[in-house]
């Protein structure tokens, strides 16, 4: 499970964007030390992690040791930057809820839509089976469980609704990209 903050689907990052984003988030102390985990570059939570994210229950107990291989540690939070200058990605988790048409609010079958989208990518324009309104997949209401983007900040270990980004964090992300960022929760099976 994770909290994903992402730029809108039409944001086109340059090659300089990821280092800029990293620098910004390190200066804010959201990102701590860089490390390698499961073959990826990750960051430990920085000293401002629990201020820049608002935890809705009790204060989190932040585990600073990586779990041993094969062990799961529910208090191990870590962060990852995602940036692809070449193509748009669907960033939902293993499980997604069916999104709703923004026009008539009827549900659209997520699995069939994502299968079609993985073939047609950005050229795909779909029609709502209920109201016949044309739409792009990212304009649907994904009910905070998925998003489409080329640039994201992923906070691993956050359960759905456990924490949300503070205004200060969203403001910084908006400023570094000149775009309005959104967030959702990746759901596991
Ligand atoms: Zn519709």
Mind explaining what this structure looks like?
The chain is an alpha+beta fold. The protein has two domains: about 1-90 and about 145-185, TATA-Binding Protein; about 100-140, no CATH class. The protein is about 20% helix and about 25% strand. The protein has four helices and twelve strands, in the order βαββαβββαβββββαβ. The strands form five sheets. The protein has a four-stranded antiparallel beta sheet, covered by helices on one side. Strands 2-3 form a two-stranded antiparallel sheet. The radius of gyration is 17 Å and the shape is globular. The N and C termini lie close together (about 10 Å). The model has no long low-confidence stretch (mean pLDDT about 90). Bound molecules: zinc ion (ZN). The site of zinc ion (ZN) has 8 residues, from loops.
Oligomer designation:
single chain
Number of domains: 2
Q: Specify the structural class.
A: alpha+beta
Question: Care to count the β-strands?
Answer: 12
Report the biggest beta sheet as strand number plus sense, adding barrel if it closes. Answer: 4 strands, antiparallel
Q: Which CATH top level class of the largest domain fits? A: Alpha Beta
> Roughly what percent helix?
10-25%
Tell me the series of helices and strands, N- to C-terminal.
Answer: EHEEHEEEHEEEEEHE
CATH topology term of the largest domain: TATA-Binding Protein
SS summary, helix count = 4
Indicate the proportion of strand residues. 25-35%
Q: Uncertain spans, ≥5 residues at pLDDT below 50?
A: none
Shape: globular
Taking the alpha carbons of the first and last residues, their distance comes to 10 Å
